[in-house]
Design goal:
This protein is an alpha+beta fold. It is 40% helix and 21% strand. The protein is built from 9 helices and 9 strands. Helix 2 packs across helix 3, helix 5 packs antiparallel against helix 9 and helix 6 packs across helix 8. It is globular and about 60 Å long.
Length: 263
């Protein structure tokens, strides 16, 4: 009797997820490579790969499989058509035009920050700062610190170990807690070469819905400006806060909130 791999007892959706995660991490894999990384049996892996290729979730080149065009289409649609993104983007465009600098929209996922949108590029973007869909530890980036500061108190004490992305990255819970308290007082966060050497960013949060940050009916994101480190100064605060005000005006009502019950 054939042995059952660790993914065999899981649902079909779980198995699809295992395969997508494996290929995303490796960029492309053969049938054997997928089997080795997922623990799925050969017959199961082969059957699922065929189904995923037919649905254009995967694309096959010779014996290798890579992520397919349907996933790219879904990802692009998810970014562009989301109600929060649609409301925020005009102000982000104005911020980019006003400053000429790199602008990000990001959200918090656990203790990581995920980049939702990115406007602009330049010499300080040579290493692909904040690519859409990419993530970094929240403590290392201005957008992440702004978002952490908007969460219920004590989040720094529950954060996982702090990887240092540069020699300037915050490296302790005590340092992060002190930084978050400063962000709460000022209303914005900064990182000076903590995310990437030679790059400075300033960020603030924007939200839709109620003012209570612990409410399930509030959607919170962060916006930022990133510049060469020698150009990071307080003059960036004003255009950033203007963009914040414009976005908040567009997001006075959160459409995800259930309408009140009829009397």
């Amino acid at each position: 009797m054939n042995s059952i791999g660790p993914g065999e007892g899981s649902s079909m959706l779980d198995r699809f997820g295992l395969i997508l995660d494996a290929i995303e991490e490796a960029e492309y894999l053969t049938l054997t490579g997928v089997m080795e990384r997922t623990g799925l049996a050969r017959s199961t892996t082969h059957r699922l790969l065929i189904q995923m290729e037919r649905r254009r979730w995967l694309f096959r080149v010779g014996t290798n499989y890579e992520l397919g065009p349907r996933l790219f289409n879904l990802g692009t649609t998810g970014v562009r058509n989301h109600w929060f993104h649609r409301s925020a983007r005009p102000a982000l465009q104005r911020l980019h035009l006003r400053t000429g600098q790199l602008v990000h929209l990001a959200f918090l996922s656990g203790t990581d920050v995920v980049f939702w949108d990115k406007l602009g590029s330049g010499r300080h973007d040579a290493a692909g700062v904040g690519q859409i869909g990419g993530s970094v530890p929240a403590h290392a980036a201005a957008v992440g610190k702004a978002l952490l500061a908007s969460q219920p108190s004590g989040i720094a004490s529950t954060a996982r170990p702090f990887p240092a992305l540069t020699e300037k990255t915050l490296s302790s819970r005590a340092a992060l807690q002190k930084e978050l308290e400063s962000v709460q007082r000022k209303g914005y966060a900064m990182d000076a070469g903590e995310f990437q050497s030679g790059i400075g960013c300033i960020a603030t949060t924007v939200h839709a819905g109620v003012d209570d940050p612990s409410s399930a009916y509030r959607t919170t994101a962060a916006i930022s400006l990133c510049v060469p480190l020698d150009r990071l100064d307080s003059r960036l605060v004003d255009p950033l806060m203007v963009a914040k005000t414009q976005i908040m005006q567009q997001l006075r009502v959160n459409p995800m909130v259930d309408p009140p019950a009829s009397c």
